[in-house]
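Comment on the following before class.
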Amino acid sequence: MIKKKNVSADDTHKQDLLKHIETTLGSGNLREAVALPEGEDLNEWLAVNTFDFFNQINMLYGTITEFCTNETCPVMSAGPTHEYRWADGVKIKKPVKLSAPEYVDALMTWVQSQLDDETLFPSKIGVPFPRNFQDVVKNIFKRLFRVYAHIYHCHFEKVISLGEEAHLNTCFKHFLFFITEFKLVQKEELAPLDDLIKKVLAE
């Protein structure tokens, strides 16, 4: 289970931004929900949404963990042409082949450590974000996309059997609109879900 980062008591601004996300999501207009609110700091908006999408994807993957095992998914993939190898740049510098559950576990642990790092994601008001903050966010979203790609390619039938497909599709649509709005993931990285993405963006 991945723990959520504690929000400091004096940080009401982040709470206000989260409320804004929930309110606009409730309106059903996902394009409006992802847009930077007027007068808000871009990095602050990216940070709050990074937490939100991380928790969302973590919960979604949690619904299919009993089907995503070392036996059923010995490789982290998104269809026959896309295989992902793991490296965190610190402990593992040379990409290694992992099973899908091992990869996702390493990924979620890595993202959590980034979110917990006060030098990357400052929780106190007035503390500046690092200069490379947007690059950090792009790397996180690039890797979170891979979890969606794996779920759609390898476990979508199970998602349907659980009656969760509408929820998965809505979450992915929200994620897709956000990464498109702020150009967070390069087009070639999105290739495994290209057909689905074209369909969603055309709606």
Observations:
- The longest helix spans residues 133-154.
- Residues 9 and 124 are 10 Å apart (CA to CA).
- Helices lie at 12-26, 30-34, 42-62, 100-116, 133-154, 156-161, 165-181, 194-202.
